[in-house]
Design brief:
Number of domains: 4
CATH class of the largest domain: Mainly Beta
Distance between the termini: 125 Å
Number of helices: 12
CATH architecture of the largest domain: Sandwich
Low-confidence stretches: 1-8
Structural class: alpha+beta
Largest sheet: 6 strands, mixed
CATH superfamily of the largest domain: Apoptosis, Tumor Necrosis Factor Receptor Associated Protein 2, Chain A
Mean pLDDT: 83
Number of strands: 24
Radius of gyration: 54 Å
Oligomer: single chain
Strand content: 15-25%
């Protein structure tokens, strides 16, 4: 029947008798305000098994026992008279030794402990004991001391840092002050502000700026370091140094300026030389490109590979762009295999670098020839030209392009795909188209 509390609330430990099997039996007799007055009263009010005041009293084998002291499986009936007598007995607070002066009937004892200011409870913030029997466990204090504990001593209580105004746990305040950016620290060089006593104090976060820009005792390099003056001194000595060595600084800066100017001139000459070389190279490339992609005679031979795959996938195929004529109108040839199993070939006018020199709409005569690999006299040939009727009906095909290329115009009645795949046209899965173009005067 110990008064020592466990980590649980332990109210039953204080009021009832706890047996070896861990069950709580009768009420503790030692808590009675007045002792039992006679042997008869003891016989009526005490359990013959646990010797505590009866709890849920019942009659068992002509003896009074607590309901929890009767063996399992035995039916029993409560004795109303004894229950009422026990409930009306006056009992002291189990924590009387700690100073609680409460006393009342037995039936209210458990409820009193829920409010008793002397009852030990766990710290609401969960702080842990650092020594003693409860080391490493949540601290227990009498309920009356909890407000003071939370206010003054709990290591998990929140404090406000007086420097940065952030909330910090009490146990973390010292480490926080070691890193707090607003905590005042002395200048590492021990400089003193004019009119003040002692070393200058600054916020921790301002120290780097102070050393870089303000501290008169900070070692700094001469502003003419890059020109060759290798002097280092305290910042407060810099004005004297610059005045004393002005003539040396002047000579160093002039020498450096001459060297930089010479270097810059050399770089400019090298750049100009590179630009001239690149310009010449670019012009050569353009000349080669135009000579390769222009049709000086108005004729282009175009080899199309992978013909079988293109027919199966019904693909569109475009030739590389080329220029035609004196003023270099740019165009390309379009082939597709979508028109009723026949090859459709058309000429598309493309945006070019000479469009502003041409007369629009463009008129031309063109001949499309599918080469016969067996007999050159049996090439498939189609000839047509842009007429006034074409310009009226398909004017967008011949006007100056506003996009990459205009819609193409060609023939819808070309050789069939089956004929193309014959060996005389298709060789090594390739066909060859010959395109002849001749510009016509504007209407």
């Amino acid at each position: 029947m110990a008064e020592k509390l466990t980590d649980s609330e332990g109210r039953e430990d204080l009021v009832y008798i706890k047996t070896e099997d861990g069950s709580y039996r009768g009420w503790r007799v030692d808590l009675l305000v007045d002792n039992l007055s006679s042997k008869m009263e003891e016989k009526l009010l005490l359990c013959s098994s646990c010797k505590g005041m009866l709890r849920d009293a019942c009659l068992y084998e002509e003896e009074f026992r607590c309901g929890v002291c009767i063996p399992e499986g035995v039916a029993w009936q409560p004795v109303k008279m004894n229950r009422e007598i026990v409930s009306d007995k006056m009992i002291s607070c189990p924590l009387k030794k700690r100073g609680c002066e409460w006393s009342d009937t037995v039936s209210t004892a458990i409820h009193h402990l829920e409010e008793c200011e002397f009852f030990p409870v766990l710290c609401p913030l969960g702080c842990v004991c650092l020594e003693g029997e409860r080391k490493g466990k949540v601290m227990k204090l009498e309920k009356r001391w909890i407000p003071e504990h939370q206010r003054d001593s709990c290591p998990l209580r929140e404090l406000v840092c007086e420097f940065c105004v952030n909330k910090v746990k009490a146990c973390e305040m010292n480490p926080h002050l070691m890193d707090c950016e607003h905590f005042p620290v002395p200048c590492p060089n021990g400089c003193v502000r004019e009119g003040d006593e002692g070393t200058r104090q600054l916020k921790r976060r301002d120290i780097p700026v102070h050393l870089n820009d303000e501290c008169p005792l900070q070692k700094v390099e001469c502003p003419y370091w890059e020109y060759g003056c290798r002097e280092e001194m305290e910042r407060r000595e810099m004005d004297f140094h610059e005045k004393e060595f002005m003539h040396i600084h002047y000579r160093l800066s002039m020498t450096d300026m001459k060297l930089k100017l010479a270097t810059a001139n050399t770089k400019i000459e090298n750049f100009e030389k590179q630009i001239t070389e690149k310009d010449s190279e670019l012009k050569s490339i353009i000349e080669v490109l135009y000579s390769y992609s222009t049709l000086p005679t108005g004729q282009l031979e175009w080899k199309i590979t992978g013909v079988k795959q293109k027919i199966e996938n019904e693909e569109y195929t475009y030739s590389d762009p080329f220029y035609v004529g004196l003023y270099k109108c740019q165009g390309c040839i379009e082939c597709n295999w979508l028109n009723l199993g026949k090859l459709y070939v058309s000429i598309c006018i493309m945006k070019g670098g000479y469009d502003d020199k041409l007369h629009w709409p463009i008129r031309y005569k063109y001949t499309l020839i599918l080469l016969n690999h067996i007999n050159s006299n049996n090439n498939y040939k189609y000839t047509n030209q842009v007429t006034k009727e074409y310009l009226e009906n398909f004017g967008d095909c011949f006007k100056r392009p506003t996009q990459l290329r205009n819609e193409g115009l060609g023939t819808y009645l070309f050789v069939s795909n089956t004929q193309i795949l014959e060996a005389k046209y298709c060789k090594e899965d390739s066909i060859t188209l010959l395109i002849k173009i001749e510009f016509l005067p504007a209407l």
